[in-house]
Amino acid sequence: MSYDKVKQAEKIAIGTKQTTKMVEQGMAAEVFVASDADPRITAKIVNLCKKMGVQVTYVDSMKQLGKACGIEVGAAMAAAGNE
């Protein structure tokens, strides 16, 4: 699984607002989206990533993504950048 990429990223944004901001600023190298997150929330970021040419990687669960980000709660999405 690609959780190691999240852990190794120099810069990480967790959650919808921070992830969107990082993608819009062109700082995101890859965006991780939890498969069990609400599609109404994730669809916008997936479309934005397509437009901006950012790779989207789907991960199993919000809980695991949150854990990989070092937080105690689930995360619907996270962006990894190396800026």
UniProtKB/TrEMBL annotation:
Keyword line: Ribonucleoprotein, Ribosomal protein
Keyword presence, Phosphoprotein: no
Gene3D superfamilies given in the database record: 3.30.1330.30
Ribosomal protein eL8/eL30/eS12/Gadd45 domain: residues covered: 5-79
Pfam (any one): Ribosomal_L7Ae
Example of a GO cellular component annotation carried by this entry: ribonucleoprotein complex
Keyword set includes Ribonucleoprotein: yes
Family the UniProt entry places it in: Belongs to the eukaryotic ribosomal protein eL8 family.
Protein name: 50S ribosomal protein L7ae-like protein
Lineage per the UniProt record: Bacteria, Bacillati, Bacillota, Bacilli, Bacillales
